[in-house]
Amino acid sequence: xxxxxxxxxxxxxxxxxxxxxxxxxxxxxxxxxxxxxxxxxxxxxxxxxxxxxxxxxxxxxxxxxxxxxxxxxxxxxxxxxxxxxxxxxxxxxxxxxxxxxxxxxxxxxxxxxxxxxxxxxxxxxxxxxxxxxxxxxxxxxxxxxxxxxxxxxxxxxxxxxxxxxxxxxxxxxxxxxxxxxxxxxxxxxxxxxxxxxxxxxxxxxxxxxxxxxxxxxxxxxxxxxxxxxxxxxxxxxxxxxxxxxxxxxxxxxxxxxxxxxxxxxxxxxxxxxxxxxxxxxxxxxxxxxxxxxxxxxxxxxxxxxxxxxxxxxxxxxxxxxxxxxxxxxxxxxxxxxxxxxxxxxxxxxxxxxxxxxx
Length: 358
Description:
The protein is of the alpha/beta class. The chain is 34% helix and 13% strand. The protein has 13 helices and 13 strands. It is elongated and about 75 Å long. The N and C termini lie far apart (63 Å).
């Protein structure tokens, strides 16, 4: 039974900070979702809150109804807590300073509230946001250690959906659908090309760009030139679904791409539409071999191919992969990552390097 009341002159979509503070001090259970950036959550947040930060492309999928809020929560304990409480208890969402009076509600917190309400939850936004709540209820706030496992979600991923696509390959299974530069593979590095199923079946284009290694990240797209000794294939049988573990194949895929580089051959990484699975593998390769962060790798690939859209699960796997790289290079932080070259391989600037292979 909901225990929070709306105060006079406040819409049903908002909860007062006084009401929330009173309920929390009484020890009543409320599901609280912190919709601010991770850095703000780490500094201080309402006790017991779950941090949910959505990249832009995930916001669009949530709008379309293609994503459940539970999928945004990466930590299992937090996900269990959400699943247990969201239908039976009040849900309070907050950003930094949303208020009922000035309609200054952020897109993310408003979208999440409406989605929860549509699904049957009693969800409201905290009036004044965390900024005002902290002023009157500092005793109900706490900070988080940066290594604490209670940090949830794709928090630092600065991914925007400015391409206007935001759909995974499973949303669009027609490889003949028009897309920017679909006629040619896209050059990500001098030897590394990103493309779709059509590109992998175009013999003339493969020969033109010196592509002799083909990394097929699908379970069912045929390796058309497998019997031709001029080509070497590696097939990763992973579907574009939330349940799939693509990261298990990262080491094998990275080694295959590096073998092509060492043999001075071009390598094409493709899936069905060339926007999700192949993009994920390409980002993983850039992160490990070019010593860059996930943000940098994703931004680089997105500039090369604006319609990229890896599914949410794969983004989470890339975040975990980034953490594993950091553990291996503990003396270097993510913010210190930058493009650098291995074995004297020169990496052109993004503008020079990211182009359709024409």
